[in-house]
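Q: Could you write out the predicted structure for this multi-component system? I'm mainly interested in how the pieces pack against one another.
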Amino acid sequence: MSQLLRFGLILGVICLAATLVLAVTYEITKPKIEEKLNIEEEGALKEILPNADSFNEKTIDGIDYFEARKDKNLAGYCLRVTGAGYNGFIRIIVGIDPGGVIKGVRILEQQETPGLGAKVGEEAFLKQFAGKEARGLEVKKNIDAVTGATISSRAVTDAINKTVTEFLTQISNQVRHSR
Amino acid sequence: MKLLGEFVKGLWRENPTFRIVLGLCPTLAVSTSVTNGIGMGVAATFVLVGSNIFVSLVRNIVPEKVRIPCFIVIIATFVTIADLFMKAYAPLLSRSLGMFVPLIVVNCIVLGRAEAFSSKEPPTKSILDALGMGLGFTWALILISAIREALGNGTILGINLSRNFEPPLFMILAPGALLTIGLLIGLLNYFTMKAKSKSRTF
């Protein structure tokens, strides 16, 4: 058997074995990891809208969100937003009141550069969003980017702007059609 | 027993951090708290033992020219297993260690032992060598982290040591890491040389 073929075969078998082992490990750990992510998300929801006593998970036009109610009255919405960051996706939870004003933003998961882009997950950056209209958000206009991390800051800001705008349009359409 | 020697050497005489001086990058980055140090040490030991067993098992099958890619695949598999289990069962530690868990793949201790030892020795010896190196790495990490956490944060394992101590922040940052490791290596060398010269005068 030619050397090339032999090398390729041995490497192939080792890679196949590795893939099988990893596939099994992934399936075993998946439920636990998802459970942890859900607990984190719940924590974020309660932090952003502390007055709400119930969160109902719903979807509209591909946007996952939570309808927050206090004593049956609508307290606001929490949206799952995904931004395209510098190093990968950034998972965000945005809380808004029914009018589109932001109540709070939390970053659930991100792979940005530690010490630079990762700072978008910190309170100093996120607290800027509270009280602002989600639809008009823009870095340099009403949001200050993290120094040296324009791409990460823009990713978060633009994702929130885009997703909330889309969401509010869909919600008002839904209300209009149900009348 | 000669086999025991394979295990013991990684603890002191051939300690990967202080003697062979390998894997300093994660050591510098991760030794900011004792919890991190222990976590990284345990993860790295798991990868060391697991990957070295399999490298030793396939040592006669894998041709020399493709041995490095094969070793890396084996090592990366174990690192991914460790990473997934950490994310599932120790998420806080996983977040604290961050990208340094996946970076165990390029930790020179792991590839170094695979290349220098396990690819030439039978599995029983390889397991002992890997365990010794892993534990040696772990206690080195614990020592460095204890010094840096105590001086730079005023805590050990998160427990506050003294109320009046204002910790010098740089101990938690890069300069503190380099200082601590450098001084420790120097100190250990000094005491080893002293012990050697004492035994020689007899």
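A: Regarding packing and overall arrangement: Chain B has one domain: 2-201.
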